[in-house]
Amino acid sequence: MSEEIGVLVEQILKVDKDENTAPSEALAEQLEHLDAEQLALLLGALPLDERLEQWERIPADEQSAILVELGGDTRLSILRTLSFAALESLFAKLTPEELIELSDDLPDEFIDIALRQMDQKQRQHFEHSNQFNEDQIGRYADHSLLVLPQNAKVYDALRLMRRDIPECTDALFLTDRAGRYTGTVSLHKPLSSPGHIPLAELMDEQVKPLAAEVSLEDSVDIIEKSDYVLLPIVDQKGMLIGRMTLKDGLQILRESHDAEMMAQAGLSEDEDLFSPVLRSSMRRATWLGINLLTAFLASWAIGLFEATLQQVVALAVLMPIVASMGGIAGSQTLTLIIRGIALGQISKGNLWPLLRKELSVGGFNGVLWAGAIGAIAAWWFSDPMIGVVIGSAIAINILAAAIAGVFVPLILDKMKIDPALSGSVILTTVTDVVGFVTFLGLGTLLLI
Amino acid sequence: MSEEIGVLVEQILKVDKDENTAPSEALAEQLEHLDAEQLALLLGALPLDERLEQWERIPADEQSAILVELGGDTRLSILRTLSFAALESLFAKLTPEELIELSDDLPDEFIDIALRQMDQKQRQHFEHSNQFNEDQIGRYADHSLLVLPQNAKVYDALRLMRRDIPECTDALFLTDRAGRYTGTVSLHKPLSSPGHIPLAELMDEQVKPLAAEVSLEDSVDIIEKSDYVLLPIVDQKGMLIGRMTLKDGLQILRESHDAEMMAQAGLSEDEDLFSPVLRSSMRRATWLGINLLTAFLASWAIGLFEATLQQVVALAVLMPIVASMGGIAGSQTLTLIIRGIALGQISKGNLWPLLRKELSVGGFNGVLWAGAIGAIAAWWFSDPMIGVVIGSAIAINILAAAIAGVFVPLILDKMKIDPALSGSVILTTVTDVVGFVTFLGLGTLLLI
Q1: Are β-strands B210-211 and B230-234 bridged in parallel, bridged antiparallel, or unpaired?
Q2: Quick check: helix, strand or coil at residue A280?
């Protein structure tokens, strides 16, 4: 399936280059078979000119569904080229839920155009969701619900169920007159109960509604543990404002994984393959700048030993090995601890046994690699003392890496900074500086 | 919720240290309120002795459910201490589905003990699932199905639905006499149809069953696009062998994310906070060894310029900056391309426009940081030529990083190697070597 898109991209760009060839009917037909998500991926894979050309070919009534699926930068690149009238007719087809999703990464002027297209009720809907922030599940509450008044009977439920049931639904919700959530009834229950029984008697007391303020991540954990494929979302006043489904959970997990992967490289999750050069460059420059500061720290550490380096140039040659071994060993401990923090497994209670274990592992690998690298270096530079210096530095740096690997993420977590994003930069700064200072310091003591 | 586990770990270890204190009743009560998953996290967060102690306290009828939730190393650490009789009674409670999950990372001798506890039918069940490998959805097919013969009527469906319906079910499946899958009927349909209508008339023709050989990753994509919360799984002969649910999809996504994060640091997904030191050390040593080879490559590149370094020691001091800027810029391109490959967006067709764009971004940041770093270096070492040398090297290395960032993942992907796992190591080797050779080479030409 996914390879298909690459092939289509190739065909489109080929047709485009060779202007004599008219777009073949076979290609047009293949494009018609793609769903909104695949078309969105295709558009994101095309350079700007070809992207706009293809966009124009998409029937107007399919465009809004594709718009929702597009990545942030791809979407913006298209919207910026449309006329005001075209924007108006495109946005007129958006539901409030779709507009909320777009609003996470669309400038306000576009949102305003869309809001002006909506009726009173839809606008209220949007405003209501918009009061929650981008990490709260209430913002993304889906409004396709089966709802009945709390005094409804089994036959009311059966009548409701005979009509169209929204996708991903295995329960209905009861509310009081004001719209406050009062309970959840499995759709299975009314089937095996007499018609006059009040639904309130069939309520599943185990179901706890999701508070609208719950974070996206926590909401996935909660729905995964529930016995249903959907959960009611309620606001602070207890009003039933919508639902979250297992399918929403899948989407949240995917997006958070994607955002994390991009953020680890200092990229925005909106970035696409053909984001504008200037915007990409400036975003990436920030991350390069942060990393430059840490690189200067490492240089400064080396600079302390200029005199030594001048006398023993072998030290300069071997420096990357000391830094690299420390960085790798440290990131292994770091990864393990970050996972432990995310799972809530780490506390003051097991910190010391954990550090002891990581130091033991570091001790084993420190001795192993100190011996191996020391021997190679001694042979390379025909000087046993060089072997002693680099071996000791490697052992010390791997132990320091174990300590940093445990404490860097814990300290970041205490400071409310996500260790998965910045842990690695800080850790390698520590192992670089410790590695260079130990290595060149020992070199100064033992070789000069 | 997750912080709770950390607090409990602390309390357990405190009680344990201070032997006069008996385990408080409050603690025992808190432990009773944890579900199997939380207890598994708790056990994984305890050092071995305390882990075994807590395991003994868990009622025998809850142990097997917890066993399934444990991480690979944690599980093994407990099983290894149990007597044969204890293993037998523990395994006697496992379902074939649970045993399949355990078998992914449990030595055969344990599986054999468990199989001997099962009856003929359960064993067949296990063997049937076991014919699929660890990346095929058929292996994990869940057998809680609503199934009816293909000639069943609406009233048969209603009768079935009045009994207990398995969790995560919004459709029933029809099979022929031999057990071959013939169709899917939404549970909603029989509710609004007369009793004598054959279910075959209500089948949803859109539903395509999942082939048992489909990879776990693809199966998640497929169920996410389907209109149901479950899909039938069929083998090559068309036999209905089980189902996959959206909840399975969530679990697969979580586990693959976890495994990827661990693998990127050269860790096993089975590794837990207190895995045995020797085993951890040896696993991690492999990854350190691979990285050592790449570090030696960088050292070798530096070694080519020993004479230069001896004369201009400033070059040794500034080396980490050249390597670091190249590595960071390269990993930004790499991350973008890896995502593009995963989404199927990259092909021969858009390769050149993509490279052009990445080179433009690299050109922008190359010029920006060449200027900034060149100026700082010139000032630091009071030598404008040093600024020229490092500035040029940075610009060249950032451009080389863009090229490597595009091609390294594409080549790995062609070689069927996951670029998300090894791309970063290879990329930084390239940027290290190119950076050092350019920087020291230019230094040799311009400074001596």
Answers
A1: parallel
A2: helix
CATH number of B147-264: 3.10.580.10
Which chain A residues are closer than 8 Å to B419 by Cβ?
Answer: none
For range B355-363, the mean pLDDT:
97
Q: Is the pLDDT of residue A22 over 80?
A: no
SS3 B171: strand
Instruction: Name the closest residue on chain A to residue B303, using Cα atoms.
Output: A317
CB atoms within 10 A of CB B382: 8
Query: Quick check: B328 and A364 CB within 8 A?
Result: no
Q: CA–CA separation, A396 vs A439, rounded Å?
A: 9
- Tell me whether residues A302 and B325 touch, CB distance under 8 A: no
**Residue B419 pLDDT exceeds 70:** yes
What is the least distance, in Å, from the CA of A111 to any CA of chain B?
28
User: What is the pLDDT, as a whole number, of residue B3?
Assistant: 67
* A314, A324, A353: residue with CB nearest B47: A353
Cα distances (Å, whole numbers) of residue A421 to A347, A371, B164, B367:
21, 34, 46, 27
Domain A2-136 matching CATH 1.25.60.10: the answer reads yes
* In CATH, B2-133 is 3.40.50.300: no
What does the pLDDT look like over A252-307, one tens digit per residue?
999 999 999 999 999 999 999 999 999 999 999 999 999 999 999 999 999 999 99
Contact B335 A14 (CB under 8 A): no
User: What average pLDDT score do residues B174-183 get?
Assistant: 96
Binary contact (A321, B335; C-beta < 8 A) = no
Instruction: Please work out, in degrees rounded to the nearest 5, the angle formed at the alpha carbon of residue B267 by the alpha carbons of B265 and B272.
Output: 125
Q: Output the six-digit token pair for A172.
A: 């209905």
Sequence ranges of the domains in chain A: 2-136, 147-264, 277-447
pLDDT tops 90 at residue B54 = yes
- Confidence band for A14, pLDDT divided at 50, 70 and 90: confident
Task: Quote the tokens at residue A193.
Answer: 């109960």
Of residues B15 and B80, the one with the higher pLDDT is B80
Long-range contacts of B100-108 (CB under 8 A, 24+ apart): B100/B126, B100/B129, B100/B130, B100/B139, B100/B140, B101/B68, B101/B140, B102/B67, B102/B68, B102/B75, B103/B130, B104/B134, B105/B72, B105/B75, B105/B76, B105/B270, B106/B72, B106/B75, B106/B76, B106/B79, B107/B76
A382 Cβ contact partners less than 8 Å away, ≥ 6 residues apart: none
Identify which of B190, B231, B194 has the alpha carbon closest to the alpha carbon of residue B214.
B231
Out of B246, B273, B313, the one facing A336 most closely (by C-beta) is B273
Nearest Cα of chain B lies from the Cα of A446 at a distance, in angstroms, of: 19
* Residue B145 · residue B240 · CB < 8 Å: yes
> Residues A141, A235: contact at Cβ < 8 Å?
no
- Residue B411 distance to chain A (closest CA, Å): 16
Q: CATH number of the domain at A277-447, out of 2.40.30.10, 3.30.930.10, 1.20.1740.10, 1.10.357.20?
A: 1.10.357.20
State the smallest CA–CA distance between residue A156 and chain B in angstroms.
Answer: 13
Residues of chain A contacting B303 with CB distance shorter than 8 Å: 317
Whether the CB-CB separation of A264 and A398 falls below 8 Å is answered with: no
pLDDT, tens only, A229-243? 999 999 999 999 999
Q: Do A37 and B328 touch (CB under 8 A)?
A: no
Tens-digit pLDDT profile for residues A338-349: 999 999 999 998
Please state the rounded mean pLDDT for residues B147-174.
Answer: 93
